[in-house]
Each structure stands twice: as C-alpha cells, then as structure tokens.
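Worked example

This section walks through a single chain of length 369. The input is the sequence exactly as stored; nothing has been trimmed or padded.
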Amino acid sequence: MNAAPHIILAAGGTGGHMMPADAVADVLVEAGYKVSLITDQRGEAYDDIMTDLDRTILSATSHTSGGLVGKLKSALSILRGVFQVRKQFKADAPTVVVGFGGYPSLPAVLAAKMLSIPYILHEQNAVLGRVNRFMAKGAYRIALSADHTARVPEGAQTIVTGNPVRRVIAKLANIAYALPLGMGDVRIFIIGGSQGARILSDVVPPAIAALDDEMRERLDIIHQARAEDIERVKETYKSAGVKADVQSYFTDVAAILLRTQLVISRSGASTLAELTAMGRPAILVPLAIAVDDHQTANARIVAEAGGGWIFPENEFSADALTERLHKMLNNIGDLRDGSDGMRTIARVDAAQDLATLIINLCDGETEGS
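Given that input, the structure is written out below as tokens.
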C-alpha cells in the first residue's frame, strides 16, 4: 500500500454516537493511522473531543421530525450529503469507513457502499438503530455492544465488541467501589445525558427533600440540569438543607463518578457503558419516546445483571423515588450488590477491540466476511 491507511469515522451528532467514535479514534491515532470524522452541526459543537481530526460537517437530518415536509427535507439533506461525501471519497479514497449510527452517518456509509469501500457499523444500543439496519447488508461487520441485540437482520455479519468508553473511564475501571462507612455521606449523581433531562429535575429534588432529616444530612448531590431548570432545582435542595452542586454541564464526569455511590439517569448507551465500566449502580429512567424504545432495552440488560433499578416514566414520581431511596440508604448492601452487578456486564476493552477489527480490515484480513 503506497499511502498510509485512511479511516473515516462517521457519527451522528449526539454524545451516544460521538463518545464511542472518540474512544476508537484515540486508539487508531495512537497506532499511527490517519483518521477523519464526518458528522453534523451538533457533532461539530463537541469541540473538546477529536479536535485533531479533519472534520467534514454535513447538514443531514433525521426523517422523524416535521411530518411529510420534514421527511422530504431530511431525504434531500441526506442526498446532498451523499453527493458531498462521494465526491470527497473519489478525491481521497479512504481505506475503511466506520459508521457509528445516527442520520449524519448515513451519507458516508452509503457513499462507501456505492464506491465499494469496505465499511463497518457500530451499534451502541441493545436495539439495532434504523441507519444500521438499513446499511447492514454489505457491512464487513456490525460491531454490537450487547449480546442478543434486537432487530439485527438475518444473515448480517456481527461481532460483539461492547461500547467504547473514553480512556479516562477505562483507566478508573479497576478502582474499587467506595461504600460509605457507617452512616457516612452518600453521593448521588443525577445526569440526564448531554442536555440534562427535565423529568429528573421535576422528580428527584422533591423526592430527596421528602427524606427524613438524618438521611438528607448524609447526602451530597451532584445534579446536571437544563439551564432553564437550574435555579428551581437549586432552590428545592437549599430549602431542604441538602448539599447540592447543580450545573448544566460537568466536564469532570469521570472524577465525579469515582466518588459516587448512586447514579440516577436516563439509560443512554454511552452513559451505561461508563457506569458498567466503573461499577456504579443506577436508578434508570428510560426515555419513553426513544426510537424503538431502545433505552428500555438498554436498561433491562443492566437490571437483569443486578446493576440497576428501572423506573418507567409513567411510574417515576417523587413519592415512589423517595420510597426507593429510603430503602437503599437503609441497606447500603443493595448499593454494593448493584456495583458488583454493573461490573459483570462491563466491556472495558471495547475501544481496543473495535479498533483491532478496523485495523484488521485495513490490513486486508477479511476472512469470514
């Protein structure tokens, strides 16, 4: 091969797609490969990851918004993206394209298929996403994060690699889970993804405020909330005499998790990958409107392993959460068992395993494809 292999990572612009792409990019760049990123304007806003990669920014949008007009606009934006990427690939043919899902990944994977460039798909969730289902035929491999992922087309070539986590998370994975001594402080981390979650800000603060005085005094709350919710969330905690740090975004999530005993969160794939790696038990509130209800599928895997407790949105009330927290804080053993359960389903080497799959394809090792 005359030129160094060139790997394209194509990812939709949410944290769930961008974070695993970032983790794999670290491994590939360190191994000496040329790596570029294709994403959308939301992905471009992540200016603290993959900063050294060449970026192509597309305007592709999801077909699920805006009714018929929205679907037409989405189709046109994806078509424009295909022509843009196809032209780019003809000028500088990549060795391998890796799609991490989300509609902005579709033009890159479609262009790769048109030009007979080998491609790999990565699925973060326990239900194969629509773009990955659409492009499954012809993929060298679909790298899955979970055993028994639903809606994988018959005949698709799959391998379970896990969902890559950032290197800083992987390095902390072997540090023991710290239970509070006696009646010591318990840190609870409330996180709703990169944009926070309104339902967590509506339910969690009053639920904690309803605990008895002794329990509230033990709590150290770290709460990620939407900007418009921050003041009311702060006020609820303050009125209840609870120590709380409320912000719209935390840059040091790994450090926070290291000192956390319980997480209350959505059940997005990247969040769960980090929680399993670090062994942090969680109360999970799946996003009810998630496509194909994939967050419930993700949460179910955690619950079956004993690592967390599921609250469907229609059952997630302040009274119900207060009751659950009261039981947990009175029996810290439940938290310890939850930590152990989380670790049983962790795949800390996922980034390396997926990178190895990509490198093998770059090197022409296509046996069994």
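What to look for: The longest helix spans residues 67-91.
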